[in-house]
Each structure stands twice: as C-alpha cells, then as structure tokens.
Amino acid sequence: MSTAAPLWRGRALAVLGILLCAFSLRSAVASLSPVLDHIAADFELPTAVVGLIGTAPPVCFAVFGLCTPLLERRFGIERVTIIALIVIAAGLVLRGLAFDATGLLLTSALVFAGIGMGNILVPPLVKKYFPDRIGMMLTLYTTAMALSTFLPPLVAVPVADAAGWRASLGLWGVFALAGAVPWILMLVSGRAASQPEPVAQPEPVARTSPAGSSDPAELATGPIVVAPADSQVFFRLLRLPLAWAIAVVFGTSSTMAYVSFAWLPAIVTDTTGVSATVAGLLLSLFAIMGLPASLLVPTLVVRFQATRTLFLVAVGCGLVGVTGLLFWSDAVTVWLWVALFGLVGILFPLALVLISIRARTTQSAVALSSFVQSTGYIFAAVFPLLVGVLHEATTGWTVPLIVLAGVLVIAIPFGVIAGRRRTIEDEWEARYGRW
Fold it and tell me: Which residues cross the membrane (predicted)?
C-alpha cells in the first residue's frame, strides 16, 4: 500500500476549491432569515412566501441533486462544480436586487438549485482528489460548512444596518465566485484531467468473501478505479439496503436541522417562557454543537471505523434532548436539553463520510451522493410543515416533539446497517453478481 501524499502537494487548488465551495453551500442559506425584517420594510412579504422560501431548500436540493449525475457524466465533475458555483453567485446577486416577494422567492430558488448541485459534488470531489486523505479533507469540508452556518447570522444584520439588506445578501456571492476560480484554473492548466488514478485508498473497506461475509479479518485496502460512467448505477442503488440506510441517516440529520431552524425558537419560547433573544441564542447553540462533530467525526470513522458508535451517540443524545424539552424544561435546563439535542449534528458529517467510503469509484460516489442527498432532502422537506400542522392541530408542542423522537427511534436500525464495513459494489456483488 502506498503512503499518503502531502495534502498540498499538487492539490492546493483542489483544497481551496473544496473549502470555498463548502462555505458557499451553507452561507447562502443562513444569510437570508436574519434580514427578513429589513426586507419587509421595503416591500410586503406574505407569510405564504416566507413559508415557501423556508421549504424550498430541501425541495430544490432533492430535485437538482437528482439531475446532477446526468450533468456530471456529460460535462465532468469539475465543470459541473463551476456551473453550480456560478449559479449560486448569480442567484445571490439577483436576490439582492429583488423588488418584490415573487422575485425574492424565484432568486432564492435559483440559489438553492446551485446548492443542490454542489451538495452532491463535493463528497465525490474529495474522493477523486484526496483518496489518501479522505478523513482530513472531510473534516475540513464539514468544518467549513459548520462555520458558514452560524457566521452569516452574526454578520448579516450588522451589514444590513450599515449598507442595506441588498448588500448583506449579495456579498455572499463573492465566496461562490471565488470558489469557482480554482476549478477554472485547474481545467485551464490541465490539472483536473491529469490527476493520478488509481490511487491508494487507506481506509478499510470490507471486501466480501465468496460466501458474502464481511469478517473483520478479511478487511483489506483497495484502489480507487475510475470506471466509465454507468447510467444504471443510480437505479441499482434502489435495490441496496446499504444505500437506503445511508439515505435515512442523512435524512434524519436534515430533518432535525430544518425542523429546528424553523421551529426551535418557538418551541423554547412557548415551553419555557424565554425571550425571543434568548431563543435565538439557543438556536445558535444548536447549530454550534455541530462544529466539534465536524472536526472529529471524519477521523473517527475513517481511522477507527466508529460509524455505529457515533450514530448511537447522536441518536441517544437527541432522544435525551427531546425528552428533556418535553418533561423537564425550564429557562435554565433548556440550555442543557438544546445542547444535547444539537449533538444530532453528528449525523451530518457521518453521512458525508459514508458517501465517500461506501463507494469504490468517483462515478459511483456521485451516484450514491445524489441518491442519499436527494432521498434525504425529500424526507426532510415533509417534517417542518408536518410539525407546524401538528402544532396548530394540538395547540402545543408535545405531539410534534414525540414525532421527532419517533423519527430518531425509527432511524436506529438503518444506522446499524449503514455501519456495515462494505461498499455498495460489495453489497451488489454479494446479492446479484458482477457490479
């Protein structure tokens, strides 16, 4: 097995491109809601439009995530990454120029379309350029996304106060445009096409024996072989429990995040009587809990195969947090329960790592990324609306919180399956023969 190459050697542009892309995927979403009051001072924002903007991200992520593998096979992963970042930048600039609620909705949808493409592309980019450094690069990637989740709300309002909400929204397009530059330079210089493959892959992958077993004694490392794009790969995933399991892990993570960003301030305000300002701080606490997870999870999975342990810790803490909010919450203990609930953020970097290490090739990683994220976002799009309906119907938060707890419990067997140390190709071959 060859040794891992230094991270920056011949790959500095790829590192920069991945990190800037990752930052753009979250900052574009997190920068809008803090300045909605500023926007409403300029033109009317109907509640229905605000609701649609809140529901649009997972829907757009799912739809455009499904389209991305088709574009990747036709144009190549680097070119589609450039397209996605330019679409994000254009949408952000146009959103800052919107003059009515409809324009704000349409330009936001354009932004989310680009993000939906970028979400699918980054894990396979990591796999292609850093097969020997997957853990480190996914740590950097998920950390960049975590930072871009809670930094925009801190910056957006001061910028809007000083320069107007249009400047506050548009400035994030700079990061998306900057993220496209490294990939453009790589294409122009020919570096994208000259990446050496196959490259040694250090993380253990379960190789299936002829009998279909995955005994730890049989674990071996294998090369990443870039095979011709197969239009049937995506549809094969529909028949694989491993692919569905990773999709449920990702969907559970997205559900907890989108429900929390939509409703957690209202939940803590209604159940504990804290002020709106404190509720906002509690939401920031929920988001910040994902930062240590982003730093630790990729390494723990790649080096120590801790998938199931991390999954159970995330679900267990989430259940304790929800239970605390249900039965023992007050203005003091609510901080503990929200912090514990925030540890469900472990599931996000966990799912991203699994996308990279549960596929042998870049092409199958693109297909798996598309399947997992599109399915997960469809799943997640249902629950913010469902929680609101249940709250209106029951005039309380008990039933919605029980539903969230139920989602976490139902996800447990899927997390166990996702922890199997084998690739989607291994599972297909064990069930159906040659991949």
Answer: 48-68, 80-98, 104-126, 138-157, 169-188, 242-264, 276-297, 309-328, 334-355, 367-391, 397-418
Distance between CA 356 and CA 401 in Å, rounded? 32
Q: Could you tell me if 118 and 24 are in contact, meaning their C-beta atoms sit under 8 angstroms apart?
A: yes
Are 172 and 297 found together in one domain? no
Percent of the chain at pLDDT > 70 equals 87
Read off the pTM.
Answer: 0.73
* Residue 126, both tokens: 């990591």
- Asked if residues 432 and 245 have their Cβ atoms less than 8 Å apart, the reply is no
DSSP letters along 290-313, please?
HHHHHHHHHHHHHHH--HHHHHHH
Q: Does the bond joining 198 to the residue before it have cis omega, within 30 degrees of 0? A: yes
Based on the fold, state whether residues 280 and 331 are members of the same structural domain: yes
3 state SS for 399-411: HHHHHHHHHHHHH
Task: Tell me the CATH number at 251.
Answer: 1.20.1250.20
CB 362 within 8 A of CB 77: yes
Note whether 151 and 157 are within 8 A (CB). Answer: no
If one counts the domains in the chain, the total is 2
Answer for the pair 230, 355: CB distance below 8 angstroms, yes or no.
no
Residue 397: band (very low, low, confident or very high) from pLDDT cuts 50, 70, 90:
very high
pLDDT digits (tens, 9 = 90+) for 184-206: 998 888 766 545 444 434 344 43
Q: Are 381 and 259 in contact (CB under 8 A)?
A: no
What distance in Å separates the CA atoms of residue 284 and residue 157, rounded to the nearest whole number? 15
Query: Phi first, then psi: what are they for 220, rounded to 5°?
Result: -150, 160
- Angstrom CA distances, 34 to 27, 154, 255, 299, 312, stand at 12, 9, 21, 33, 33
Where among 145, 174, 189 does a domain terminate? 189
Is there a contact between 126 and 22 (Cβ–Cβ < 8 Å)? no
Token output for 397 = 């938060």
Residue 269 and residue 128 in one domain: no
